Automatic annotation (TrEMBL):
PANTHER family on file: ARSENICAL RESISTANCE OPERON REPRESSOR ARSR-RELATED
Listed PROSITE patterns: HTH_ARSR_2
Highest taxon listed in the record's lineage: Bacteria
Keyword flag rRNA-binding: no
Protein name: ArsR family transcriptional regulator, virulence genes transcriptional regulator
GO molecular function terms listed in the Swiss-Prot or TrEMBL record: DNA binding; DNA-binding transcription factor activity
Keyword terms, alphabetized: DNA-binding, Transcription, Transcription regulation
Length: 121
């Protein structure tokens, strides 16, 4: 089957747009405090006050990070009286974070093994 050059160009442009959106998600995840918040939310929904207390962070700072996570589509919120509760928009975000975490651990282990090998020489 011969795919036309135009079809390939359209597909490449579509992929580029998807990669741009993926990069936006990665930028949203690029702050350790936001990763802490997401990790805490794996246990269930929390209010800003609960998150600030449990993570030892300033409440205003937690609110700012939650706003970015919500804008990025990674968390959702619901209002209950005067409180707003946040939860993961999808558990898949935790799966993605766990995969990146495991990649980092493996990389650190390889680098440590390499460093030890070099030091023995």
């Amino acid at each position: 089957m011969n795919i036309s050059k135009e079809t390939k160009t359209v597909e490449r442009e579509r992929q580029w747009r998807i990669y741009q959106l993926q990069a936006e998600i990665c930028r949203t995840l690029s702050d350790p405090k936001r990763l802490l918040i997401l990790n805490e939310l794996r246990e269930g929904e929390r209010s800003v006050t609960e998150l600030a207390r449990e993570l030892g962070l300033n409440q205003a700072n937690v609110s700012q990070h939650l706003a970015l996570l919500r804008q990025g589509g990674l968390v959702k919120s619901r209002k209950d009286g005067a409180n707003i509760y946040y939860s993961l928009a999808t558990p898949r975000i935790i799966e993605a974070c766990d995969i990146v975490h495991q990649l980092l651990v493996e990389q650190l282990e390889r680098n440590q093994a390499l460093a030890q090998e070099i030091l023995r020489q």
